[in-house]
Amino acid sequence: MAEAAPVLAAVASRPGASLAQAGAGAVLPTTPATPLTQVDSTTTKLKPTGIGELDRVLGGGVVPGSVVLLAGEPGVGKSTLLLEAVHRWARRGPDDRALYVTAEESAGQVRLRADRTGAVHERVYLAAESDLATVLGHVEQVRPTLLVVDSVQTMLAADVDGVVGGVTQVKAVTSALTTLAKSSGVPVLLVGHVTKDGAVAGPRSLEHLVDVVLHFEGDKHSTLRMVRGVKNRFGAADEVGCFELQEDGIAEVSDPSGLFLHHRLDLVPGTAVTVAMDGKRPLLGEVQALVAYTSVPAPRRAVSGLDGARVAMVLAVLDRRCRVTLSKSDVYAATVGGMRLTEPSADLAVAVAVASAVRERPIFGGTVVLGEVGLAGEVRRVAGVGRRLAEAARLGFTRAIVPSGSACSHPDMKITEVGTLSAALTSMGI
């Protein structure tokens, strides 16, 4: 590089000279650079899939020539979701054809699922292939406007060394499909496997090769499924889509907050409702606590759906700062409906639920509580309070306990700001 520097400087000083003439290794481009103002933006216009919750996570739909990776655990519903996506895509119009490539199942198995879920359409083409070259041939024949490959870890590139699912094979297959998408303008949806830790299986570069990475999550004991954006070059990467896995397929859940609340007529001690932010989406969740006396020297602490470390911290703050004695009691804390509340804004709801259970005093009906609890007993502010309260008011809640300095208001809610955990318990009559 030191020897090339004088050459480049000499070329730059001569009018009309080029780096290619100077032998600096430059190659004249076949296509000149285009001013940004002259680039046609209509070629990357979003095309909705027809599944509202999926389009929400994608940023409005799929972009022509984009590559989307949908990763999730076995049996979570990835194939069912994408089969529904190609079905709705084919229903868009006579010019829209979808090619579904399955390398894990036979064509008969996919047809059985399509019959069960009602996803049969004449413009949905099915190919049970695992050879990459053969798949590219199917694309040439069918000329689809949407391609689904299930899954990228089971595809084989015959001209590349390595075993199926290995780092070399997965990278080669993904690179070839990405090149196909960019050159033809056909959006490609890839199904990906995950490891025991929940990460996408294969090389880390796999996530860099694609344009969008989505994680499909769900508890095997619950029918609720979440599609979570991890990477998105065309929109926000923190959106969440909600679905419910049913016997006849997968259904969108456009208003999931009701799934995480237990509707009852009578007020019960040991319950509190909070509003969590899952990406940009506010979701109401209910925390339940049960406190029972025990003679065992080491009381039990059982947690479900909550961060165990944060619950232990909140219990210590209650004992030390609010004189809520828990040293001789077992404490059980859980969420309703399989919801996971791990953000600090749920601290105040946990503290209120536990204190309500200890003193056997239910909190006022129609109340939501928000706030992070500090070790000194203070209630700290959380982000997005306005959006959280708007969601709570939409579902009929009329009162909110929020941290001091939140500076928010809502015409349909009575909002009480508190600075300490003791003040929060006092304001709710606990």
TrEMBL record:
ATP binds at G72, E73, P74, G75, V76, G77, K78, S79. InterPro entries: AAA+_ATPase, DNA_repair_RadA, P-loop_NTPase, RecA_ATP-bd, Ribosomal_Su5_D2-typ_SF, Ribsml_uS5_D2-typ_fold_subgr. The keyword Zinc-finger applies. Residues 43-194 form the RecA family profile domain. GO terms for biological process: recombinational repair. The keyword DNA damage applies. Residues 330-430 are annotated as: Lon-protease-like. It holds the Pfam family ChlI. GO terms for cellular component: cytosol. Belongs to the RecA family. RadA subfamily. Plays a role in repairing double-strand DNA breaks, probably involving stabilizing or processing branched DNA or blocked replication forks. DNA-dependent ATPase involved in processing of recombination intermediates, plays a role in repairing DNA breaks. Stimulates the branch migration of RecA-mediated strand transfer reactions, allowing the 3' invading strand to extend heteroduplex DNA faster. Binds ssDNA in the presence of ADP but not other nucleotides, has ATPase activity that is stimulated by ssDNA and various branched DNA structures, but inhibited by SSB. Does not have RecA's homology-searching function. This is DNA repair protein RadA.
